[in-house]
User: What shape does this take?
Amino acid sequence: MTTGRFAPSPTGDLHVGNLRTALIAWLFARSEGGRFLVRMEDLDRVQAGAEHEQAQLRDMAALGLDWDGEVVRQSERFHLYEAAIDRLTDAGLVYPCYCTRREIREASAAPHDGPTPDGAYPGTCRNLADAERSDREAAGRPPALRLRADVGEVTVDDEVLGSITALVDDVVLRRNDGVPAYNLAVVIDDADQGVDQVVRGDDLASSTPRQAHLADLLGLARPRYAHVPLVLGPTGQRLAKRDGAITLAQLGDLGVTASDVLQQLAQSLRLSLPGELVTAGDLIERFEPSLLPRAPWILS
Ligand code: GLU
Assistant: This one.
């Protein structure tokens, strides 16, 4: 049976863009008669909060989205991520990296032998000699852990975008503050929870080949992927606070109900007609992934 999921970071209220992605993910899973899970991606415990989590779940429910089983929290699952890091370490695929963000920026801007895509790690700490490593240890810099990727480009199939190809660099597995990295956690969680359908915003498409490669290395099945267009603000940029009332609570203050928002979302997905009153459940049988609008929805 298909198992889909929505995996928000509980750092604030969901905005209309997040809610639209949640609705689409729910429709993907439910239209196949599948299960739908919610996972709180609260690796950053400082920013995440129980009150945000409750508000996010309440807003999903207000739109008529339901989920199966208990909500899972990444903050309670560090042992799973550490076990995966141990396995990769045993396979000789992990090395400590002492670089600061700034060093990485500067190194990737410098000319090199081969192409290094924007933001990709240029491999500075990959082959440090023991002495160089001890120098950095002695300087008291806590290392991040990186994957020795050695793979070049990886391609994944995507049900919306077709295929996504990206160079897989030496992705961070554990940050230098000791927190497991998102790209690792997401792979472990999806596999552990039996998720085989990942539907999320297309801002994450470029990370997907890395995640698929990690899954391959860990012997985990790759899920099906569908990256969906984001909602943009009136200026064509990602939806943000400057765009005014974008959460259910803010819209509620203006007299816009959750049902009104659902009607707008449904119309934006071409699943209902103007003036027609629908529930989320009504949309399940109308949903057809191949008819999903391919362009971002601009909120005016
Ligand atoms: N936690 C991520 C976000 O809120 C989503 C990650 C995912 O769906 O894989 O953007």
